[in-house]
Amino acid sequence: NPEKIIDIGCGPGNSTQVLAGRFPDAYIVGVDKSEEMISAAKKSYPNLDFNICDAGTELSQLDSDFDIVFSNACIQWIPDHANLITNMLNLLKRNGILAVQIPMNFNEPIHKIVSELTASGKWKKYFINPSVYYTLSQSEYFDILSEISEEFHIWETVYYHVMKSHNDILEWYRGTGLRPYLDVLPDDKKTEFEADFMENIVRRYPKQKNGDIIFRFPRFFFTAKPKR
Question: What is the CATH number of domain 1-103?
Fold first, then answer.
């Protein structure tokens, strides 16, 4: 039974709360670099601990006696994954385990829509660095984990989400993959960008016969143990 768990990139604390439900006897702390997210997490889950921490630069300042280091849909925003994963493993006890999930949707229409929009003549001036993702290939993660971990497992799952409308896709993505792009746009351009985004969603995601829309979302997972 784990005694100490850290949730890296906890956002508003939803995943941290799930961990607390799964491991009720463990001490669990959630960390995120966003003050806004940590504030929301503390408000929603006052029984849990949350701290501000930039996983890209500050992991070495944390304790190194965790039984589980958990990260859900976070590290795609952080560069240099070989160094990052090494630092995550360094937070673990000898027999601890690292568990990570990363969206792997580069070949899906939703990702192509964003890439094409940000590179288009209308919008490219707002996106000096159009790529905000640092996700590697499955092969690259295999090579990294082979070198720095004692034991690891990798797998991928494709989720087929059933959406009731194209607007549901926009709402989903507005709070996740679209957020860093909206953040760099002037306020008076955000609605227009979303409208162009929505137009492409309607074109790329056809409705099923019953009116529902299938929204595929591949996710890549790995677990790893530190070298003894």
Answer: 3.40.50.150
